[in-house]
Amino acid sequence: MPRWIRDNALSVVMLGAFVVFLVLQSIFGWHTHNEELAEYGAQPIGWLAYLGSGHFAESVFENWESEFLQMGGYVLLTAYLTQRGSAESKPEGQTDRPADDERRAGPDSPWPVRLGGLPLAVYRNSLSLALLLIFLGSFVGHLLGGTAEYNQQQALSAGVPPISAWDFLGTSEFWFQSMQNWQSEFLAVGVLILLSIFLRQHASPESKPVTAAHAETGA
Fold first, then answer.
1. What span, in angstroms and rounded, lies between the C-alpha atoms of 189 and 72?
2. Tens of pLDDT along 119-166?
3. Which of 11, 99, 127, 160 is most buried by a 10 A CB count?
4. How far apart are alpha carbons 14 and 116 in whole angstroms?
């Protein structure tokens, strides 16, 4: 196996799977959307046109929104909250790790750490900030795509005039779409946190060692 692939295998597999499933989603979504159009007597659209439709944008960003909210919230909450016995928690009583002290920075440390000041302050929270910014972008994408899809459905079924994104933000439809994903994401993380207290996965950094006591906290 080439060294680059070996060194980056986890991200290559995860992002490769993402691309494969996104393409498959677009194909199946395209067929589903054309079936819906046929029910209203409308002409089907091509696959490339579907990629620019509200139907596709809404389905993609609706899921991204919940994923990045979950991950951003999880990264931020694990900095301050603990769960005794969980591999997903830092050890009880631990505040900052010694390696988080910028005075221990070396020549190989990231440049914001060596520079200090505002760049360091931002960098210390950059992971959760990046994830939450992607969440906000996905939220906007969901809102705009959902507005376009909602307007098309209303026009096809009732012939009513379109509404603005601001108006769609106030509909129960938009928040129903969001909440059905948000609740499932936080349920999945909560279950992982609790199951990692009692269950193990050999060789995984998301699990405590097989021989670790249930009360041992952190991986």
1. 12
2. 999 999 999 999 999 999 999 999 999 999 999 999 998 888 999 999
3. 127
4. 34
